Amino acid sequence: MFDVTAIGELLIDFTECGVSENGMRLFEQNPGGAPANLLTVASHFGYRTSFIGKVGNDMFGKQLKTAVEECGSETRNLVTD
User: Fold this and answer.
1) What is the CA angle 34-40-44, rounded to 5?
2) Engineering a disulfide at 31: which of 5, 35, 56, 67 sits with its beta carbon 3.0 to 4.6 angstroms away?
3) Cβ of 4: how many Cβ atoms within 10 Å?
4) Do residues 14 and 57 lie in contact, with contact meaning Cβ atoms separated by under 8 Å?
5) Quick one: pLDDT at residue 25?
6) Gap between the Cα atoms of 59 and 49, Å rounded
7) What pLDDT sits at residue 26?
């Protein structure tokens, strides 16, 4: 039984984090998406949370699943494809 369940997007936000020696902009990858952000906050307040969604079977999908789990949300219904 969960207090809060969210369904929707789970994605990577690429945020600018500097400039390379060659003058090229550098970006870092950060997990994002409104439903996942909501669950993160709810988990920090002690609610039992679960995420329903789908991610790719690639390095970004693995990063996203790990990020959601590390924030305390259950990922049984997070499909990897």
Assistant:
1) 150
2) 67
3) 17
4) no
5) 97
6) 24
7) 98
